[in-house]
Amino acid sequence: MPIRMTGLNSGLDTESIIAALMSAQRTKQTKVENKKTKLEWKKEQWASLNTKIYNFYTNSLSKMRMKSAYMTKAATSSNTSKVTAKASTSAATGSYSVKVNQVASAQKVTSGKLGNLIAKRDDKGDVVKDSNGNIVYEEGKVTSKTRLVDLKDAGFGEGTQIKVAAGDKTVFLEVDDKTTIGDFVGKLSDAGLNATFDEQQQRFFISSAKSGKDGKFTITSGKMEDVQKKATDNLKKLIGYDSLSSANKTTADNIMAGLQTGSKSVDDVIERLTTLANDYSDKEAKRKATELYTAEAKASVINGFEEEVRNSLEGKEETYHPTIEEKIEYLKKKGYKTDIPDGETDPAKKEEAFKKTLDKYADKEAEKRIKSNDYDYKSKIENATQNGITAKEINDVKIALGPAGTDGSVKLKEDKEYTFDDRMARTMKTNTDIDSAAKEYSKQMNNFLSDQNGAVTGDGEALKVLGLGNVNGNKIPAGTSSDMAVIEAGDTEIEYNGAILTSDTTNITVAGIELNVLGTTGDEEVNISVTNDTSGVYDTIKEFISEYNAILKEMNTLYNAGSAKDYDVLSDEEKDAMSDSEVEKWETKIKDSLLRRDTTLGGIISSFKNKMVGTYAKSGGGKYSLASIGISTSQDYKEGGLLHILGDEDDAEYADKTNRLKKMLDEDPDAVIGVLTSLTDSLYSDLQKKMSATTMSSALTFYNDKEMSSQLSDYKDEISKWQSRLDEMEDKYYKQFSAMETALANLQSQQNSLASMLGGGN
After folding, report:
1. What is the DSSP string of 432-445?
2. Model's pTM, two decimal places?
């Protein structure tokens, strides 16, 4: 906005004069803005009302036009401590007998209590043995971190495998000297079982995730034969099992389990196994190359160390050899403290301590050089991984080691530890080896620990130390701990009117009746009675009437609202002069009147009233209306057609009347259903037509939303045009007053000149 200096010569308050002139002109724009605001409010009010009418249309009204809404059935049981029942609309009325022979249960296993003797391990983690070579055991509590092999009398020898099978899920755990109690629980969980080890009780608690016979599970163990162990180890070695990520290890476990159970063939898994094996082959090649060139980098650090120290000293020539003290001081500055006792004077001991520290320094520096882009080790490793390492490359490295290699500062392993073929040769060999190893594994391990003729193979010895044994479905294995407990998996079995029915849960649905079985009945017969639930139907009708009245009452209020013709939208200045509550009341008065005598709203109200006072012709003869079944409008016209159930206890005005609706539901339910389905369907169809899409309204909309949006757009355009006109008009006024000020300034100047001339003549 430009800065205007006005009234300097005339002394007039030009700003106020122009503001007054513009105020009169802005009246027309303000009227358009007020129309826009009122239309926005009206559209918001219609949108809210539209949502309520549409929800009534799709839910309550739609439901009441269907006979299924009145087909409510009630089911009662003669012994709810054994069987409870619910009836759907499809259930036939009548009486039914039920006997419960068995209630569904999940298989549950509680292990015997574990022993409290655990192998003692030293600080390095090695098992402690006595002078006779026997393992030393000490008392303690078993935890999830306890190794299985550390348990007293553990039967986990080389090649021990535990199998857990639950439903279509089978997992295997190959036990080694690192396998823990937690690993065993994890495998149980992987099989889909609920499993915990209670450290307080020192027991395993295992159960099926679902009840019924289909939820039974087996746990068994056995020891592989040498040929089986060899096949397993060979396949794992080829894919680098121990170095796999957690996700890839799970993949490998699933593949091997599939081959062992026979659920997968070698052809099914060979591609994935080959990928794992080739990935491992590449990693091994890179590891070997990295190890070889790290040795070369370390030698380079050691060989150049004297020069490195000399360069750090000032004024030393190339022929100068740093003293042992200078070397130690240099390492100290680098953060490597040499472990030399205070006052040590023996040069040999100083040299020995220095070399140990230099070795640590060289290791770190070599690692940095391998990762750095400032040296060529990265490219050497990449090239070697791709092209392989031959005896010549190894010999070149040996030469590069120089003095550090000859004095033993850097040592290399045997040549065979570093040599490997190029990637293509490795891949071809790996593919051949994997194919052979997978076939051998499948041959040797297929059906190991499998179910054969209902019996689980495997001796189960390894499980006994865990308070378990071979758990074959529901059976307690022979020779297990006496305090081990097994609850059998079983289906629910009932006799329904003499027919045997089963379920893997405690719920059985039969002929539209849902039975919840709580306990066995023995010889007792539980009677299930299914009747028409008139009270439920009555409540459904009552709820519908309540929702109908609520929406009709709101529409009546809006349609019959008082006039607000003397109220207009407040300006900002007017709002500032009023309190917030006064502004709210003022605007509410306007908003409440916006749908007064609205023709669209009037049409919807008429549909509600007219359609619900119609009649229904029963097929057996006679016409029925809402009044015929005890539903009537009030004689008070001010209610605007609200419905009442005569005799309803919650309706204070009509509670003392005879409840004809309940009587009709008992005596002639078809008439009640006929009236309500006919009238509600008629109202439903009429509302459906009213919310069809037109050029003025969108689909599923009862008001002219498109027309309102178009009007709002027109108002915005008109306001914009008015603003442009007013800006031009205001600018014109300022120019006119500016011209006046210029003229006055010129006149003043002329007067001053004339006065000066006249004054000068005297």
Report:
1. HHHHHHHHHHHHHH
2. 0.62
